[in-house]
Amino acid sequence: MTAFALDDPLERGPGLPRPGNVLRTAAGSVPPSSLVLLGIFSVQFGAAFAKELFTALPPSAVVFLRIAAGALIMGAVARPRLRGLGRRDWAVGLGFGLTLALMNLSFYEALSRLPMGIAVAIEFLGPLGVAVAASRRRIDLLWVGLAGAGVALLAPWGESASVSWLGIGFAMVAGACWAGYILLSAAAGRRFPGTSGLAFAMIVSAVAVAPVGVTTGGAGLLEPHLLLIGLGVGLLSSVIPYSLELQALRRMPPHTFGILMSLEPAVAALAGVLLLGEILHVQQWAAIVCVVAASLGSTRRGKRE
To answer: So where does this one cross the membrane (predicted)?
Structure first.
């Protein structure tokens, strides 16, 4: 169940529509492409706010705040049921949650060392790899080469002092986890009803991240203003974009959704400039363009197929 699936055929009374009806009507009046773009901006601006927290908390503690907030909200909405789950269901759910935990930990570690646009561009190689692996067209080698050229442009060979090898490594781990997340998400969708699979995975992820997050965050996690910002990051980075994307996918073809999602690295770079003052070099912008173009190319090829 999502925020847009709360409607009930029974009316509350004259002139008092159900909250779910209001939300669904409001979302239905917005073009699906706009919902996807709103979701993208929500994710990247949430990441920018999370990065602002790095001055007060280490990345692992911020990850814990984000995932815990998302798990509480998604768990309350979806209410995943554990009864009746088989061993394979548990294996998929636990693997999904652990992958989600590692993806977020590695991405936030990359984010603490790299400008946002660069971190997201490298991480985006994960879903791009999944898309290319599903195709056997020779032209996909072009998109692989283009994405590889983008990463080569980002490598700190000379003047790119703002880029570190360790940050690139963390971003690549996050990208590999994102690829696993996509595959496990599909598997969870076949075994768990509605959004309960994602809610279950987020709860597992929060439990897995808790030891390192609480240990590194310490008493700082009890600061009211940090908890409030962490809740906001959880909403912006998980709950809101997922709900918007789910609603959009009901009204648009998957290949169109994929084309719009290819804009994520560019939006991340824009959020970094506007919110964090991360001015990128021309070479770095060229690298981001290479990754976006590779993603667009592979997605449009999928449409023709």
So the answer is: 56-78, 90-108, 114-134, 141-158, 164-184, 196-214, 226-244, 256-276, 282-299
Reading the block at residue 54, the tokens are 């790095």
Residue range(s) defining the domain that contains residue 122: 31-304
Q: Give how far Cα 86 sits from Cα of 3, 41, 64, 180, 266, Å.
A: 28, 38, 28, 21, 42
Q: How many domains does the chain have?
A: 1
Residue pair 116/276 in contact (Cβ under 8 Å)? The answer is yes
Judge whether 90 lies within some domain: yes
Query: Is this structure's pTM higher than 0.90?
Result: no
Q: Name the 3-class secondary structure at 206.
A: helix
**Residue 20 placed within a domain:** no
The answer to whether the beta carbons of residues 97 and 202 sit under 8 Å apart is: yes
Residue pLDDT, tens place only, 51-68: 988 988 999 999 999 999
Q: What is the largest CA-CA distance in the chain?
A: 69
Whether the CB-CB separation of 58 and 216 falls below 8 Å is answered with yes
Determine the Cα–Cα distance for residues 114 and 171; give it in Å rounded to an integer: 9
Pick the closest to residue 151 from 298, 283, 4 (CA basis): 283
Q: How confident is the model at residue 260 (pLDDT cuts 50, 70, 90)?
A: confident
| Short-list 193, 223, 237, CA closest to 69 | 237
- 243 domain residue, yes or no: yes
The backbone torsions φ and ψ at residue 16, rounded to the nearest 5 degrees and listed phi first, read -125, 85
Sorting pLDDT into bands at 50, 70 and 90, what band is 110?
A: very high
